[in-house]
Amino acid sequence: MYKLGQSLFVYGTLRDEDVRHAVLRGHQPMAIVDATIVDHVTVYFPMRAYPALVRKTGAHAPGVILFGLRAQDMLALDDFEGEEYRRTRVTVETAIASQHVWVYRPRRWIAPAAPRWSIEHWRRHHKQTELKREQALVARLRR
Asked: How many CB atoms lie within 10 A of CB 60?
């Protein structure tokens, strides 16, 4: 598939183009491909409007792979994700093949029975408020 740069599986707010644009400072990934991670589920991070990816046997968490990320993109993403997440490697499935990519996982344990998170619900109910918060965070990180 795509080999240049880094590849990252995103399952939460970074699936939204406006959020990606703010965090990546306008840079576009080389390609964005639908993907799924097996034996995981996307749930609400406790007391937050954004998600966490947690293990759950038999579940499938949807997302996309961002291909062709630059070193400065990865640093910006590390800053954006902050102390609540750590970047690790995972294998995800696309329509064509399995891909070994980066993903951000929560540092703390979160129950797989926590309320499910979806990008559609987030866009309808949280996007406007969260996008302003995320844009302010990105602006602070640029200083």
From this structure: 13
* 8 Å CB contact between 38 and 60: yes
How do residues 121-132 score in pLDDT, each as one tens digit? Answer: 999 999 988 888
Residues in contact with 67: Cβ distance below 8 Å, sequence separation at least 6, in sequence order: 1, 2, 4, 5, 7, 29, 30, 31, 32, 33
Residues spanned by the domain of 120: 6-142
Task: Say how far residue 108 (Cα) sits from the centre of its chain.
Answer: 16
The CATH number of whichever domain residue 62 belongs to comes to 3.10.490.10
How many domains is the chain partitioned into structurally? Answer: 1
Mean pLDDT, rounded, for 118-143: 84
β partners of residue 17 = none
The helix (run of H) or strand (run of E) holding residue 81 is helix 71-81
CA torsion 87-38-21-69 (nearest 10°) is 60
Taking CA atoms, 76 is separated from 22, 69, 80, 81, 117, in Å, by: 10, 11, 6, 9, 24
Task: Give domain status of residue 1, yes or no.
Answer: no
Residue 55 lies in a domain: yes
> What's the rounded Cα separation, in Å, for the pair 119 and 42?
10
